[in-house]
Write a structure and sequence with these properties.
Layout (H helix, E strand, L loop, with lengths): L19 H13 L1 H19 L2 H7 L39 E3 L3 E6 L6 E2 L4 H7 L40 E2 L5 E2 L1 H28 L2 H17 L5 H5 L18 H22 L3 H13 L8 H21 L9 H13 L5 H9 L4 E4 L2 E7 L4 H8 L11 H4 L1 H14 L8 H4 L1 H12 L26 H11 L2 H10 L18 H10 L9 E3 L4 E5 L8 E5 L13 E6 L2 E2 L14 H7 L8 E3 L11 E6 L4 E7 L9 E10 L5 E10 L3 E7 L5 E4 L4 E2 L29 E6 L6 E6 L13 E7 L5 E7 L12 E9 L4 E12 L4 E6 L2 E4 L6 E7 L3 E16 L3 E13 L2 E15 L2 E4 L4 E10 L7 E4 L12 E4 L8 E3 L8 E3 L6 E4 L9 E3 L6 E5 L1 E5 L8
Antiparallel strand pairs: 1-2, 2-3, 4-5, 6-7, 8-9, 9-10, 10-11, 11-12, 13-18, 14-15, 15-16, 16-17, 17-26, 18-25, 19-22, 20-21, 21-24, 22-23, 23-26, 24-25, 27-29, 28-30, 29-30, 30-31, 31-32, 32-33, 32-42, 34-35, 34-41, 35-38, 36-37, 36-41, 39-40
Length: 1009
């Protein structure tokens, strides 16, 4: 630590990111608008407790490096142990990942269990803390008065409990050798959270009121923070067994390096926001100078010297932390921190170069013999957005929340957009993929209400959307003017705009409400089906908002925060999640259980080959997508997901019975290996079966009667996780098709009185074994069910080929299907491998669904003939009601002869026109015929590195096809040298196809095409 006297020379002259004019506008708007008055009042209330403290009390609040910080009382990293309470043990589990309670003002240095309300530690740590402060006021390990380290409930030194639950800052170790980090957790979740809240609330109150009293108190905290921050090093903490958000790197500052990005951004902006007041605050300089002199630190005789001290000890340390990998989070987080710090520095000879560094190519290189630091050569942001983010604007982490890199970038985007000085870079203007990030957050929603909880996301059976929030969406709407962004914000706000306004710092903050209202007026549009081919999600939806039904198939990343869930299936119906993913694991902490079960094959609704885990890969491939009623379908393949498996493909249909109900037809094809197991689990509840004779397995798990629950084999990372399925019942020789029916239990408050949602599954494929077993979702999420009941259907053989056929019937109280059966295939062109299913509804409609693996001629019983890939027929009383032919030339049956001139339109790409980010275009070798409409899908045979399916955004214009704003750019040709140009996801000369679709509707409810 340097004690050198700082120079009084200092170049920053004014606040940059919230200026004096903006503060004045906030004061004026508080006089004009009630919402602004409330915003100011709220900020003043939040700051009041800190404003009431003396300068000395605030100064003494901030601890130094040697007081540990930890996110867990009981370390869980790398083991199957879970966070516990010393008193009630597992009783604390349902209260979440970070359950302990704190009150810095009323109960300092104590934490409370939310379950049993025990309080720890037992000793008076506050007194010990003061006794361990050195001449600088810094806490020093082991330097306190040891006589204070006792349990006052047991004052007799001879009492075995005299030292029980006593913490000197470095934990209490029980008789079993387990360390409990009471004070480290208090310091992290109590003390540092209070400090961060104080800094933020005080600077916010100043910017809204222009009252320098708030800036003065904030300045006290930032000055003292600048004393301790240069020494802050998380690596020293992890080496002593404490836990934090460092992603296993062991790097960070106050906190692990991931969460430290928030600290760096927050503190840099707080400094910039209070500069105007601090420059005039001689009292603050006098106070800080007196404390520094008393604590043998460098003098701070003037406001300029004080500001330079904060700049040196905090802002430049934040910049250094980013460049040393000690402040580094998910993509977007550390880049935002650097931009905030660069603007706070506000030096024309340095700030532009630091902003350029954020966008420049670079990597993070380890430094030999110094695990606490890296050499980060560039922020790499241009490459992240252009090359790493997919064309849907999402990151590569395989889970909705973690893939929202754009959310981490929005603060940086706004800082660059809003400041008047450093505007040579713009995230909003320069990067089309960034714009798509906002659109992805409505496109991946089901029923305009729920984002599928894919990967480490959400909680089992929960119902909610992953978005950047209404405020951020409306900001993007201000920039781009895109109506869907305003509509999503309106939905998030309860379909109201009366509370919408722009920033309190704007001249006309209510212009935003007027603009948003203009685009959300009128009736809500019907629900639509869509896909995100860059991210890997397809959603089929019935149009009705009341009694909504949505089916999704995921084919994206199964790496990072993703699960081994390629081709997982989900279904929303009857106001519940009918096929609930397990969501976020209990802990993202490296525990084997998290990877071996929650993130693994066996916990998902998909097929497993030979009991193995899926191979990690970037994406699957969309083969077909037909969004139109009454029979919608998606067909997706994932070759290479298992070694030696040549086919791994799922064709899922959503078929409307009426405005109230839809059923799902699922065909899961697997080719290769010797054992195929299709797993299903519905909502929580009892499962009734028909067609099975189940025998309870005595002991063990689904992995075997001799394999214990949660047992891990030597190669468990390559296994599917069957030892986590318990309470097993088996039918070793099922006689034929069978059904399972789950009566849903309401753990989420979503089932209305008088309703009883069910999920009935009609399992049609002959299998060698069926088992029922229980599997547990994460138990530390509020509202999580205790268990799910899994159905495991297995086929065995050599060089096995399977086509699992299942019909899913989500219903309320009474089933709406009366019969489901496989139809006999009379004849078929070789390699078509057709599946034909007949579904009879309770009101007498008889549907036939035909799906082929490759196109050809297929005849099934009843005289139905398909020439193509997919066909659907619906009869009532022998009279045709619906017919739909997809990717085919003919569909015939009783009273039906539906024809199409060709099964698909084909050609080659002649030009790729990607100059207009809002209107990406392809020029094709021959024009599509007249009458083609927006919403059709074009499939391009590119190099296969990423998939290449796109939705036509408008009717074709001659040989030009518009894809709207979904970019054709894959990334830079050379990420290290962006000047070499861009690589497209599709290239001239590659072939394309647009499958045909013709339909017939004789019900009078719709028009055939």
């Amino acid at each position: 630590m340097s004690l050198a006297v700082v120079s009084s020379a200092w170049s920053k002259e004014a606040s940059l990111t919230i200026t004096a004019r903006q503060r004045a506008m906030a004061v004026r708007n508080a006089e004009r608008f009630d919402w602004a008055r409330q915003e100011v009042a709220g900020a003043k209330r939040a700051a009041a407790p800190w404003l009431a403290l003396s300068d000395d009390e605030l100064w003494d609040l901030i601890p130094s490096q040697e007081l540990p910080r930890s996110i867990h009382v009981y370390s869980v990293y790398g083991s199957n142990r879970i966070a516990l309470c010393p008193h009630c043990r597992e009783g604390i589990i349902p209260f979440g990942n970070y359950p302990w309670r704190y009150d810095v003002a009323k109960r300092p240095w104590k934490i409370e269990c939310p379950n049993c309300h025990s309080i720890f530690p037992k000793n008076d740590f506050g007194a010990y803390y003061k006794s361990a402060l050195d001449e600088h006021g810094f806490f020093r390990k082991g330097q306190g008065d040891a006589s204070l380290l006792f349990n006052p409930e047991h004052p007799d030194p001879a009492d075995p409990m005299h030292r029980a639950y006593v913490d000197d800052g470095y934990g209490w170790t029980d008789g079993d050798g387990t360390r409990w980090d009471f004070i480290a957790v208090y310091t992290q979740w109590g003390l540092w959270q209070a400090i961060k809240g104080a800094i933020s609330s005080l600077e916010r109150a100043y910017t809204l009121t222009d009252d320098p009293a708030y800036a003065h108190k904030c300045g006290v905290l930032l000055t003292r923070l600048a004393d301790v921050y240069p020494d802050m090093d998380w690596n020293a903490m992890i080496r002593q067994g404490f836990s934090h958000s460092c992603g296993g790197s062991g790097r960070g500052r106050v906190e692990g390096r991931i969460w430290e990005t928030g600290n760096g951004t927050r503190w840099a902006l707080a400094y910039d926001h209070i500069v105007d007041a601090v420059l005039q605050d001689g009292d603050l300089a006098a106070f800080a100078d007196a404390r520094h002199r008393a604590q043998n630190l460098a003098p701070l005789p003037t406001p300029a010297a004080l500001l330079q001290h904060i700049e040196t000890g905090l802002i430049r340390e934040v910049i250094l932390g980013v460049k040393e990998g000690r402040i580094r989070g998910n993509e977007g987080m550390h880049q935002s921190t650097m931009i905030a710090a660069a603007l706070a520095l506000d030096k024309p000879d340095e700030t532009p170069a630091l902003i350029d560094w954020v966008f420049a190519p670079g990597d993070a290189r380890n430094i030999p013999d110094d695990p606490s630091r890296q050499e980060v050569t560039g922020g790499n942001l241009a490459t992240v957005i252009v090359s790493t983010m997919d064309r849907d604007g999402l990151g590569t982490e395989g889970a909705p929340g973690y893939s929202l890199w754009g959310a981490s970038l929005q603060n940086a985007a706004d800082l660059l957009e809003n400041n008047a000085t450093y505007r040579h870079r713009s995230i909003y203007r320069d990067f089309p993929k960034y714009r798509q990030y906002y659109h992805a957050t409505w496109r991946w929603n089901c029923l305009d209400a729920a984002t599928p909880p894919i990967g480490d996301s959400g909680a089992a059976g929960n119902w909610g959307r992953v978005t950047p929030g209404a405020e951020r969406l409306l900001r993007a709407f201000e920039i781009y003017g895109d109506a869907p962004l305003a509509r999503l914000a309106w939905e998030l706000l309860g379909r109201r705009l009366d509370g919408v306004h722009g920033s309190i710092f704007e001249d006309d903050p209510e212009a935003l409400q007027r603009a948003a209202a203009a685009v959300v007026e009128g009736p809500e549009p019907p629900l639509t089906s869509r896909f995100l081919d860059g991210w890997g999600l397809a959603v089929l939806q019935a149009p009705q908002r009341e009694n909504g039904r949505a089916l999704w198939v995921y084919f994206g990343r199964n790496t990072g925060h993703g699960h081994r869930d390629r081709l997982n299936l989900g279904l929303y119906a009857e106001n519940i999640d009918m096929l609930p993913d397990l969501g976020y694991p209990e802990y993202a902490s490296g525990r084997p259980k998290d990877s071996a079960w929650c993130r693994n094959n066996a916990s998902h609704n998909l097929a497993t080959v030979d009991g193995a885990a899926q191979i990690s890969s970037y994406t699957g491939y969309l083969l077909a997508f037909e969004p139109d009623a009454p029979a919608r379908l998606v067909d997706v393949a994932s070759p290479g997901i298992y070694e030696g498996v040549t086919t791994y493909r799922r064709n899922a249909w959503m078929v409307d019975v009426n405005d109230r109900y839809s059923y799902v037809v699922d065909v899961m094809r697997v080719r290769g290996g010797s054992s195929h197991t299709l797993a299903w689990h519905g909502p929580p509840g009892e499962v009734a079966t028909t067609g099975l004779t189940l025998t309870k397995q005595e002991g063990g798990t689904y992995a075997g009667p001799d394999i214990a629950f949660e047992a891990l084999g030597k190669d468990w990372r390559k296994e599917a996780g069957y030892s986590f399925l318990y309470d097993v019942e088996r039918d070793a020789s099922p006689a034929g098709p069978f059904t399972t029916d789950t009566a849903a239990i309401d753990t989420r408050g979503r089932i209305a009185a008088g309703r009883q949602p069910h999920l009935r599954m009609h399992h049609l494929t002959a299998v060698q074994e069926v088992a029922l077993a229980s599997g547990d979702p994460p138990q530390n999420k509020s509202g999580a069910p205790r268990r799910y009941r899994y159905v495991m259907a297995t086929r065995n053989g050599t060089d096995l080929e399977s086509a699992f056929c299942t019909v899913l019937e989500p219903y309320d109280s009474a089933p709406f299907l009366s019969r489901v059966r496989l139809l006999t295939v009379v004849s078929a062109t070789p390699d078509t491998n057709p599946v034909a299913i007949e579904v009879t509804t309770a009101d007498g409609r008889v549907d036939t669904v035909i799906a082929c693996e490759t196109a050809g001629r297929v005849e099934v019983e009843g005289g139905i003939v398909l020439e193509g890939l997919y066909g659907f027929l619906a009869y009532r009383g022998g009279r045709l009601e619906h017919a739909k032919l997809m990717a085919g030339t003919r569909l015939t049956g009783p009273d039906c002869d539906l024809r199409c001139e060709r099964s698909e339109y084909t050609g080659t790409i002649t030009r790729v026109l990607a100059e207009d980010p809002a209107n990406q275009q392809l020029e094709i070798s021959e024009a599509l015929p007249a009458g083609q409409h927006a919403g059709r899908t074009i499939f391009i045979a590119n190099d296969g590195v990423q998939d290449a399916a796109y939705t036509l955004a408008a009717p074709p214009q001659g040989r030009l096809l518009s894809l709207g704003g979904i970019t054709l750019v894959r990334g830079f040709v050379d990420p290290n040298e962006p000047a070499k140009g861009l690589r497209m996801n599709v290239e001239p000369g590659q072939s394309w196809r647009v499958p045909t679709m013709v339909s017939l509707d004789r019900t009078g409810t719709g028009a055939g095409r």
